[in-house]
Amino acid sequence: MTIAPDIRCPCLSGEVYAACCGRYHSGARAAPTAEALMRSRYSAFALGLEQYLRGSWHPSTRPDSVDLDDDTRWMRLDIEDVRRGGPADSDGVVRFTAIYRDADGGHRLTETSRFVRERGVWFYVDGIHA
Ligand SMILES: [Zn+2]
Q1: Could you tell me the distance, in angstroms and rounded to a whole number, from the CA of residue 49 to the centre of ligand 1?
Q2: Of 46, 22, 54, 47, whose CA–CA distance to 36 is shortest?
Q3: What CA–CA distance (Å, rounded) separates 125 from 130?
Q4: How many angstroms does the Cα of residue 124 sit away from the middle of ligand 1?
Q5: Residue 64 is inside which H or E element, if any?
Q6: What distance in angstroms lies between residue 38's CA and the mean position of ligand 1's atoms?
Q7: Of 30, 42, 105, which is closest to residue 68 (Cα–Cα)?
Q8: pLDDT in tens, 17-43
Q9: For the residues 99-118, what does the mean pLDDT come to?
Q10: CATH of domain 17-129
């Protein structure tokens, strides 16, 4: 799947895709913070990038496959709280709400996600749904 580099990034940062999550999806660089990884994973869900979702999942919790529903439309991401997760930290917590629509209508998902950084690379570990 080819994604135009000049589309607005699905994470709604206001940047174009290539200057935002696209850099991480392509492997051109690693997400520098837990929040950046969180945003790139949201964008990967929106764009259906299963390989990126698995690769950014910590090996200890990584699922064999990620269930991506073609009917799901990811509408909006709000980052609500960030603890640690900076370039010098080894772990971080990001609380967010994602709004999406599927065949059943609109949904709101609030999750507190845990991230760890190993050898300079951030990984998603797990999340607790509010
Ligand atoms: Zn983005």
Answers
A1: 13
A2: 22
A3: 17
A4: 16
A5: none
A6: 9
A7: 42
A8: 999 999 999 999 999 999 999 999 999
A9: 97
A10: 3.10.450.50
